[in-house]
Amino acid sequence: MRTLTTLLGNSQKLDGGAMFGNAPRALWERWMAPDELHRIDLGCRALLVRDGERNVLVETGIGAFFSPELKRRYGVQESHHVLLDSLARVGLDHADIDVVLLTHLHFDHAGGLLAPWEEGQPPRLLFPKARFVTGRRQWQRACAPHARDRASYIPELLELLDASGRLELLDEGDRSASLGAGWRFHWSDGHTPGQLLPEVDMPDGPVVFSGDLIPGSPWVHLPITMGYDRFPEGLIEEKETLLADLLARNGRLVFTHDPDIAMGRVVRDAKGRYGLADSLAGVRDLAR
């Protein structure tokens, strides 16, 4: 039997204006209240898919790999690796994970692959048994980044993944040998090239981990994008395609960055605006 569990990782505080792009503060502060430094609270949520004896983890969050100085710069709130604690609460260790799927390789989605920072120690890769799955074009972008997003990648992590011998790179249309049946992939370029959004078949309708295409519930609203998105207009079109598809199939979304809502079902109102129903703060061993 397949079950879904959402797991919290390290949290962040980031500038609200950057997270909401060209939306005015008078609008976005209704959804997420800023602090005195104009930052909003953000989660880094992962999804655990238990499929029989196999454990698949979608994303690892930002983790605790940053030095204290960089933790302050990027608003990381905890000093320890919160995702490892979340795994322990469901009876697992990072060594129990069989596959880690990465929507993309920005540090707030893949940094949790690394052990916590220790002064004078080189970065160390966790998840010793896992195969690591991501998109080929995203890997190429990470290895040769644009000046606009170079700081979003971790060169040492890329070297460790490449040297592991356990990296699987997917092209559009590919099936993953590591994941097998029951998985479908949506592709998005609006935030970063070759972002890979997994869809998990479930009895009550498909569940999509929406990564940074739709990082949280406010971004379900079509015009809302992030300042970090490379092609906002294209992203809106990708988002509309995904939401229409999920609406037709009674689908749900899992959000990585929403601090309060982990999952919701896609709905649309009489004016054609997309929204959520049946929102949940977290799920544990969801079988439907």
Walkthrough of the structure:
The protein has 288 residues and is α/β, with parallel strands linked by helices. Helix content is 21%, strand content 24%. The protein has helices spanning 16-19, 25-28, 68-73, 82-89, 107-110, 136-143, 155-164, 232-248, and strands spanning 2-8, 12-15, 39-42, 45-51, 54-58, 99-101, 131-135, 167-170, 183-188, 195-200, 207-209, 252-254, 263-268, 274-280. The strands form 3 sheets. A 6-stranded mixed β-sheet has the order 1-4-5-6-7-8. A 6-stranded mixed β-sheet has the order 9-10-11-12-13-14. Strand 11 (207-209), helix 8 and strand 12 form a beta-alpha-beta unit. The model has no long low-confidence stretch (mean pLDDT 97).
